[in-house]
Specification:
With 367 residues, the protein is an alpha+beta fold. The protein has 2 domains: 12-40, no CATH class; 110-356, LCP protein (Aminopeptidase), CATH 3.40.630.190. It is 43% helix and 19% strand. The protein has helices at residues 12-17, 20-25, 33-52, 55-77, 85-89, 94-102, 174-190, 204-213, 247-255, 262-281, 290-300, 307-318, 349-356, and strands at residues 110-117, 135-144, 149-154, 160-163, 167-170, 198-203, 217-221, 225-229, 234-238, 241-245, 301-303, 325-329, 333-334, 345-346. It has a 6-stranded mixed sheet with strand order 11-6-1-2-3-12, sandwiched between helices. Mean pLDDT is 76; it is low at 1-31 and 49-78.
């Protein structure tokens, strides 16, 4: 006997219309026609019940499961007494309270030296050697949880300083000669013995990676900017106007200094980028970018901050208002053309006092 395979489904009506011999060959031959009808009726009722289940109920059930799971997860991560319930009742934003609970609370002021360093191109990304380039930018940052303020001082890269064993040179060379440790010593001595608790070094491609991980930043480009630097693989080509900059564009905007303002104009643009990054990170939706941000930290950042300190600082920074952040640059003057062999940014003792007094803690004058 030959079997004929067809694309058509076998229905109950076809089974009932077949002869006795064919029915005997079928696996359910013991079922009579009445039993088949009963089975069909039961099946139809079951299908109709399934059809009548509203999708809204399915969605609600899934939402409930997700909410319970998320609540259980948060309960394991955040102790209930870690949340500022009093702050919530007095009007604090829920996302601020949640971020503090997820992270750590900043318990004391920190003064941190942040350096954007030229990456050593022949060193592997993320290796200790890749952070030993010149400091393209230098920021001294004080985070004070007591009065909820941040002070940022930009230090021009051409600032003239004495470096032990190397003589008088530019401050951006300290990281090359002795890494972060020597850079901290040189900056502290230049700024009236300012205390430096920790350091952070970010390679220049790290800014680009950070901005891309955040999905771009909103910046108002004031004028046409065009410059190419093959040695640092930098290609700046920007037009004026409010726009969303990707990582490469943001890096170019921050590093451009080929205009009449030179390094001082570049410092202003770096502060603009910092504020734009701060605004993007303050958005609660940044949690969606956390995997990319962690990847950036691992590859492009070198620091002696502990994980808990990083979490506390990040949480504190995300809950600040714009008027609680003050940014200034170290005042001074450019050296005269024939004054020195190289061009420098010359800083007087009065310039240092103006930048430090009542803003940063020094070894002689703790706040």
């Amino acid at each position: 006997m030959e079997w004929c395979v067809s694309n058509r489904p076998i229905t109950a009506s076809k089974v009932r219309s077949a002869d006795a011999t064919n029915r005997a060959d079928l696996p359910f031959n013991s079922l009579g026609s009445k039993q088949i009808d009963v089975t069909q009726t039961t099946l139809k009722k079951t299908i109709n019940k399934v059809k009548r289940v509203p999708f809204a109920k399915i969605g609600f059930t899934l939402s409930l499961l997700i909410s319970v799971s998320a609540g259980a997860l948060l309960g394991r991560i955040i102790p209930i007494n870690a949340l500022d319930w009093g702050g919530l009742l007095s009007g604090r934003k829920p996302e601020e309270v949640l971020m503090e609970g997820l992270g750590r609370k900043l318990e004391r002021p920190y003064q941190i030296l942040v350096m954007g360093v030229d990456r050593v191109l022949d060193a592997p990304i993320g290796s200790p050697e890749s952070f030993n380039g010149r400091s393209d930018s230098m920021l001294l940052i004080r985070l004070d949880p007591i009065n909820r303020s941040v002070n940022i001082l930009s230090i021009p890269r051409d600032t003239q300083v004495p470096i032990p064993d190397y003589g008088v040179t530019k401050i951006n060379a300290a990281n090359v000669y002795g890494g972060a440790a020597l850079a901290q010593v040189v900056v502290s001595e230049k700024l009236n013995g300012v205390e430096i608790d920790r350091y952070v070094r970010l390679d220049t491609s790290g800014l680009s990676a950070l901005v891309d991980a955040l999905g771009g930043i909103e910046v108002n480009v004031p004028k046409r900017m065009k410059y190419k630097d093959n040695t640092q693989k930098l290609n700046i080509d920007l037009y004026p106007g409010m726009q969303t900059l990707n990582g490469e564009q943001a890096e170019g905007f921050a590093r451009f200094r080929h205009d009449e303002e030179g390094d001082i104009g570049r410092i202003k643009r770096q502060q603009i980028v910092l504020k734009a990054v701060k605004a993007k990170i303050a958005n609660p939706a940044v949690v969606l970018h956390l995997p990319d941000l962690i990847n950036v930290m691992q590859k492009h950042v070198d620091s002696n901050l502990s994980f808990d300190e990083m979490m506390a600082i990040a949480t504190f920074s995300m809950t600040l208002k714009p008027d609680q952040i003050q940014a200034n640059s170290l005042k001074g003057r450019p050296s005269d053309p024939n004054e020195f062999r190289f061009s420098y940014w010359i800083v007087s003792p009065d310039d240092v006092d103006q930048a430090i007094v009542d803003k940063f803690t020094t070894k002689q004058n703790p706040q």
